[in-house]
Amino acid sequence: xxxxxxxxxxxxxxxxxxxxxxxxxxxxxxxxxxxxxxxxxxxxxxxxxxxxxxxxxxxxxxxxxxxxxxxxxxxxxxxxxxxxxxxxxxxxxxxxxxxxxxxxxxxxxxxxxxxxxxxxxxxxxxxxxxxxxxxxxxxxxxxxxxxxxxxxxxxxxxxxxxxxxxxxxxxxxxxxxxxxxxxxxxxxxxxxxxxxxxxxxxxxxxxxxxxxxxxxxxxxxxxxxxxxxxxxxxxxxxxxxxxxxxxxxxxxxxxxxxxxxxxxxxxxxxxxxxxxxxxxxxxxxxxxxxxxxxxxxxxxxxxxxxxxxxxxxxxxxxxxxxxxxxxxxxxxxxxxxxxxxx
Length: 342
Hints:
Layout: E1 2-7, H1 11-22, E2 26-31, H2 35-44, E3 60-63, H3 66-70, E4 75-78, H4 85-92, E5 101-104, H5 117-129, E6 134-139, H6 144-148, E7 153-158, H7 162-172, E8 177-182, H8 185-207, H9 212-232, H10 243-254, H11 259-268, H12 273-278, H13 286-300, H14 306-317, H15 321-329
Parallel strand pairs: 1-2, 1-4, 2-3, 4-5, 5-6, 7-8
Antiparallel strand pairs: 6-7
Helix pairs in contact: 4-5, 8-9, 8-10, 8-11, 8-13, 13-14, 14-15
């Protein structure tokens, strides 16, 4: 029996707890910040705030105490919003050991440092505890609600540590949750983070009343600019043709359960960002936080990302969504077959 701590009881953290719990061979502790979530799971085996209607197995215990959640854990899964990752790992550091396996399931970039989540975790543990963690990134096309109800799902665990990747593959896989391995943690993490920006753009197109032609063009060119940045950062282009690249991008840009796409759609309909976020009741659309970091990372690597730049202008500079789409369509002509071309 593996002992697993899941830090973060939003929809995705709860979905992963259900996946691991339904195997019946793990002891799973789920850490939840919100007292109402703790109470709901303890009393009814349901996370009524973030993943209503999805029963949580009895072998999953919930706690609001980090030390209790992490005690004797062999695998630590971090599923907190990206902007809380550094703070929480500082708080957790006293309870973490070098022999633990760390799995980052957060899709985002740290806005100030531009670091990927595995890099944030590594930096904290190196400075606070003096060890480099064994770490992987879990990413792919996954809506938590569909994972929780047992819909067939495929996902990737990426790590430079092959033994860690194989362990996570074995421990997390079940007949409806298929885990692939990948050694390109850079590509997998960046793909998972950057696709949220393109999903906001896809939502903008929907909110403006544009059709399938527009969405298909946006997804395709979005994949091209994500790939350019991934390669510039040291990732592999073929990763972007896989689950953490094309797979996750298509899901998030087209699926009705996508929070990032929903934010974009509301922006396209003329609503203000602050109003949209207020109406999400604590749910997080990571693309809102990632966009500024992505623009800065692209600038640092001298990579042109026109869709990302326009989403940043809409989200953080007050640009009209219609003007942003128009500007994308009237850019000078490029060659589609040259990777470096935007």
